[in-house]
Amino acid sequence: MAQKQSVVIIGGGPAGLTAAWELTKDGGAERYDVTVLEATKEFGGISRTVKHNGNRMDIGGHRFFSKDDRIMRWWKNILPLQGAPSYDDKKLGRHHDLEPGGPDPEQTDKVMLKRHRVSRIFWNHHFLDYPISLTPGLLKALGFKLTMEVGFSYLYSMVHKLPEDNLENFYINRFGRKLYSMFFEGYTAKVWGRPPKEISADWGAQRVKGLDVVAVLKNAFLKLMPKKRDNSQVETSLIEEFWYPKLGPGQLWETVEQQCVDQGATVITDAKVTEIVREHGTISAVRYVDAKGKSTELKADEFISSMPLKDLLNAMDAAPVDDRAAKSGKAGAAKAVPKDMVTVANGLPYRDFITIGLLVKRLRITNTTDIPTLGNPPIVPDCWIYVQDPGYKVGRVQLFNNWSPYLVKDVDNTVWVGLEYFCQEGDEFWTMNDEEATAFAIKELTRMRLINGPQDVLDSHRELVKKAYPAYFDTYDRMPELAEYLDSFGNLYCVGRNGQHRYNNQDHSMASAIEAVGNIKDCKTSKRNVWSVNTEKSYQEKK
């Protein structure tokens, strides 16, 4: 029997666990000895589900959809689609295209729900379509004069295109300067802590591919057509139907982790990788520290990393070089990590993230849409409310009741609200204690007139997330150099959002892991396919 090939996977998020499952499923554990090192006790990374007093929090809002059929099939194989109505479907008389033979959400937890997305923009105490659309609601909110300014500004942008060498110009070319200044400039600065002029246009190219006023109007027109469209015909930022695990996104990744273990993988939690050992031009081992401070070395043939590139390079730099071998000129002696590569890695910026969950008795606003909702009284149907009003620090407001009724302990009589704040680790907002940050969030929700005040709040929870969003400024423009250096280690594969310093959706992170595993299985040298996931417009927007 051939000797097993050993693979160490750093990180138990979507990319790392996808790689682990691709290696171990279908008897793969007979060929591969797989070990996953997860620095925390939880799985899913930013896609984990936080549990608090019977309620569950999705800390970033994760719609499960992809233009990549491999990923859709992958998810469906882990959690099958619902074959019977969920709790809210029954109460609201909602009808989906149920999966023949699929599980009943009322009888089992291992099920994926079909959800309808509703997202709106909060601006100047108005709720507007997301993304911005030239609807009567917008025209009424803006008034005649402002509407004319927006219209002429957009027409001007159609004729006078700006060089897309920064995010500001990217948005102006698609929406016009007036609409950009009202809805994108302040919001983008809120999210990233930098003005859009300082951010690479690459971010816009990944997140709003193919989306402009024409695309929005086209989508609005097609909504009126009787023929039903599937998600492959809609721009990604406009997707209206998605799948969602009954108990939140973390449920799927917890299920994947358990299946990997069942198939023979080793998963070690509280394992913080501190050193990456290099030898003979390859990676030979990693050293990790456990919760008790004990250091362990783990050798392997192949390494898949989803840890932040900053941490990866510093772990390489921390591993001692064999000075005797280096001085003697011994073949294969590891050299010190080039200082310029360490500089690039340490200069890569991140945006950190805080979600504050507030369990409230009721919302002050009423549902004026034609979409029925749960609640007593019924709540608004939004999954997200984008706060593009510069008068508020909060970036988005989530209503977990609408993602899945099973996230909320008493979904009929309480509303579980998540306020998302973008910040920097160590800044004034990050260093607030729980009580201060919660009081701040309650004040903002009250000023927005979404609740009456503190008397409506029954419970709260604050979740801090480091390095949530890789950012596209500072040394980001030197990423190709860093990728080339990392690729020089033939047995190292960088995958996932932080592993590639790319603001991927989870399906793109998964795809990068699938490509990496394919390379290992096929003994493929080039890693271009691994790095190229979500870099071409056709990948996300068109099949």
TrEMBL record:
InterPro entries: FAD/NAD-bd_sf (IPR036188). Gene3D superfamilies: FAD/NAD(P)-binding domain. This is Flavin containing amine oxidoreductase. GO terms for molecular function: flavin adenine dinucleotide binding; UDP-galactopyranose mutase activity. Residues 86-108 are annotated as: Disordered. It comes from Bifidobacterium mongoliense DSM 21395. It holds the Pfam family NAD_binding_8. Residues 87-99 have a biased composition (Basic and acidic residues). GO terms for cellular component: cytosol.
